[in-house]
Batch of 3 targets.
Target 1
Amino acid sequence: MPAIAEPYRIKMVEPIRMTSRDERETAIRAAGYNTFLLRSDDVYIDLLTDSGTSAMSDRQWSALMLGDEAYAGARSFDHLVESVQESYGFPYVCPTHQGRGAEHLISKILIAPGQHVPGNMYFTTTRVHQELAGGTFHDVIIDEAHDPGSQHPFKGNVDLDKFQALIDQVGADNIAYINVAVTVNMAGGQPVSMANIRAVREICDRHGIIMWSDATRLAENAWFIKEREDGYAHRRVAEIAKEMLSHFDGITMSGKKDCLVNIGGFLAMRDKRVLTKARELVVVYEGMPTYGGLAGRDLDAMAVGLREALDDDYLTHRIGQVRYLGERLREAGVPIVEPIGGHAVFIDAAAFLDHLSQDELPAQTLAAEIFLDSGVRTMERGIVSAGRDTAGNNRHPKLELVRLTIPRRVYTNSHMDVVAESVIRVFERRKDIRGLQFVYEPPTLRFFTSRFEPLPAPIEETATKEVVEPEFATAAP
Ligand SMILES: *Cc1c(COP(=O)(O)O)cnc(C)c1O
């Protein structure tokens, strides 16, 4: 593969701190071995999430200065609407403070209590809002999405048979809408094909079902269509994205991903009645319909960012960088989820630490070990994230993963080299790594705030040790 350099020059820099092993040991102990509880100042390279962590361009920063902060009728809103109309093809837009604000409103508008909402794998905030509105979520993604080894090129696709089976079972009238995510975050940033979107549309048309998209990573999805689907190789990503969106009645958008901003979101749609309802609700929950909980300058930055994210060269580098990291790991024998997705590399922690049982928290342990090695922050997506079932037992998810999420336009491939070398170093001494156990567990969304400590060493080992390590409990929170 030819080298792909960053398609930008660096005009402003943010220094980051390199730390010693001693400092990192103190930091991870104080954080209860949970990377969510680390202070950003103690992190060298931050791969916790790609959400709201993008670097804005000089054009976005310029647009920010031109923001119109009028309470009502600000021209910043007009700029966003023009941008959405031009790039996404939807006539109507309702801004919200971020993606979940849009999910909240559309769930209230489209779901009558008792109705069903199919989708291609759940997303945390999406499903919560559907359930709060009285809906029941149904996963209709293809089976390959749940298999980390499957090489299917469009692992995000809707399984048409599962969708049809749900219609047959509950009746089209009881389906509020179908929500198609592009790409699918929880499946590892896997794309949906144009053919699949068209086929879902046909089923929807036949049954009079509304079709919305969680379009959070639509630009990355369009790039994969260009790369992998017949007939799209010579089209511009911006055109492909517009064609994709032409099949949907509307979208919810988290601007924190493919609009390249640090905060923001919106709903966009074709049906004026939905817009009217959204405007009635947005004033209650977010703000006036022309700002939706954002500052005028945020709308301007988003209007510019959503265009920039559809640039072919930007995306080729963006996805190329994720792939670059993934391929370096794969070449060293590190087990990862394949194919490598659009926004993150997922390490198969169960295979990486195959001497640990799932109850010894392999992914949580690996995330802590990577931080200890180099100051690189990653995220657990395994048994800790899965939480407990209604009976109070730990859920044991099929996938036990560590996510290395790449922020957009923030790091260079030299940073990726540092990350890869660190993971490979940890891989080489994996047999010496002991698991973790909970010392504090909150009742819900436990991955955010749980605290852990290393499992005690086997008896023979502790017996020969002169100094016992100071207990984690003595560290300040
Ligand atoms: C981030 C995200 C959301 C929610 O967006 P926020 O801006 O974080 O509220 C919804 N869906 C997907 C797939 C996401 O990744």
Target 2
Amino acid sequence: MASDAAETGNLQSLLTQLGAGLDDYLKFDHPDALHPSKRWREHLNQALPREGIGIQGVVAELVQQIIPNGSAVPRPGFCSFITTGATTASTLASTAASVASPQRYGLTAFNFLEALSLEWLAEMFGLKSVQGVYSSGGSVANLLALGAARQSAFERIGRDPAADGVDRRVAIYASTEAHHTIQRSAGVLGLGRRAVRPIACDARGRMRVDALQRALDEDARSGILPMAIVANAGTTNTGAIDPLQGIAELAHARGVWFHVDGAYGLPGILDERVAPLYAGLERADSVIVDPHKWLGASVGVAATFVRDRELLQRAFTQEPAHYLEGAVEQSGSTAPILEHSLDDFGVPYYDLGVELSAPARGVVVWALLREIGVAGIKARVERHNEMAAYVAQAAREHPNLELLQEPTLSICCFRYVAANVSDLDLLNQRLHRRLIRGNQNLPSTTRVNGHLALRPCFIGARSELSHARDLVADVLRLGSELAA
Ligand SMILES: *Cc1c(COP(=O)(O)O)cnc(C)c1O
């Protein structure tokens, strides 16, 4: 019978076995998990184990049954949605954290790296005089930023919304292309999803500043409190960057909180060809970025930056609890606090957001920056933007392709066209299904200005220009087969 007694000292050999299984997986020469010959579900679908199979049994099942039937997301040709596989450095760092720092608090090296890596991110993206906090993803990062915005807007009229709730209608202004986590944040914050005012975009998916101004004017006449303006630095759909400078000017003139959602696109600022589009970012009151997107962190790492973290603390603090204050009386003591006192929690990240127990995430960001530096991240961002530009150029030049949106970052929306086919949406839908079945080049689809588009989003650390070329070749081959 397997017991807990073996919980010591055999990580080295177990991780070696696991590593071999993961290396095999990363060769991507196994059929995908949806393949009809794959019978993993029958194997795994077992009753609650009354007796354990022991750690060797667990490793064997992980390596033989589970890892090879994992997700297609880490594939170099995967370019759907905005998600990617962790780089090796992130995998190692998150493994290390799960063993050596199950929590981010305490005066440990891990807690220190939370702060240091947040400073590194801010510096890399040109954010000055900001303070950050990590959370699980862009959804929560936006929630925290908007929680700070709510706190700021209500404190100005002499109220504490975190303690007392909200007593009047507010509006959050975000473009029709904004991520829907903005609406959810408004719901969670007690403002109501309908507090989000959809602002029209131009034909390239960028918020129209004139439409924003009109909405602000209208609401001012109706006595609605303007709580925040949300701008996109890289929309999820097409990678468009809103006119940050114009929006910042309007936000400042009206005294409204200016939030920039850079979950996907903030790292684009490292590419000098598009960096000018980020002018105005420096005037933001809050900014978010997802290291688990373009930076290749293991999933569960986002950062929110604000100018004044005390606003976050007032918005999200827990009521004081005796188990957090420490058992040892420190007041009145003149003795220096012991460096390794368990009563010292380091930076109290648990009071700046909505999580108490949370993994150490800074070490993941630290690892990926230590490994390849800003230069390595910049080269990756430039490569991915060039891949989108390559697809755009091919779509402009080939008579059977049509570019549906000029790319800004690493997303390119295009479609297959044929003179003899009238329903191009259906043709591209079928083409997309065939592509996915091939399990090599995996873009998503979206709608752009009324048309169904193939939408590669290049963000994987393992994807290269050759994958953009393969994708275009695949689309042309499948398109001509289907149109024949
Ligand atoms: C992905 C994304 C989000 C949500 O982030 P998660 O990490 O998936 O929670 C928010 N905003 C934008 C612009 C995004 O691309």
Target 3
Amino acid sequence: MRIRVCLFFPLETWSSLADLIKKTGHAVSNWVYLGGVKAFADGSLGSNSALFHEPYADEPDNYGLQVTEIESLFNMTMASDKSGLQVAIHAIGDRANDLVLDIYKSVATTGMRDRRFRIEHAQHLAPGAAVRFGDQGIVASVQPQHLLGDADSAIKKLGMDRAEKGSYLFWSLLASNAKLALGSDWPVVDINPLHDIRISMKRMPPGWDKAWIQSERISLADALIAHTISAAHACFLENDLGSLSQGKLADFVILSTDLWEDFAAEGSAFIEATYVSGVQAYP
Ligand SMILES: *[C@@H]1O[C@H](CO)[C@@H](O)[C@H](O)[C@H]1NC(C)=O
């Protein structure tokens, strides 16, 4: 295996995971890390099951689906947190994100700790939610590739105004000091991180001639940080991964260009070589 994985297990299994980590620690090896626990607050935009404060524009009685009961989500988050586990919860709609932010806020009142609570996807946020991510120190773990397919459907399902104000708020999250960790969501979409880096900079859906929510584009430097050191930080792995620094594992790529402009243009920068633990793995 030439790829490092940080595993998240179903939230319901928190107590077995806590026992296992007590025995083995988080690092099973330099390849396999026991991360934390993961649960689902809602469904997806594509199936009209992401949970929103307002109904779907194309289905006026449908607000989406809350897939886990709040009280049990809260109880299990609390129990996991008490046993030292990191918790990640899937939330796509604005209401699901607010519910999870509420849960994280109440759990955090039990005392200061470096928790790095995560919300997976955080795709559609209500006004003020980006600021809450920052204030509460929540990791927004977002996958830019999904915005390509969501741009047209979000406008249809949420209406222009809600879609524009709340979707994939990369810039707003960073401006609110939220911890933005970007990634691919492979195997649902392509694994190549260069796509996601470009998409977070350009936000250009196929067939469009302008960016979707121009003001939420981020710079190459911010996109790289979100894909590397911030992604490592979101897994408590920033001491091993995420930057080229003494004592870290020396995973890096060599690109065909060092010009930022080339990099941003699709197809004009590619990976010439990949090193894993300092050893050439590709080509
Ligand atoms: C949550 O925890 C409370 C307090 O321990 C308990 O009374 C309640 O039954 C639990 N609810 C669920 C759904 O687990």
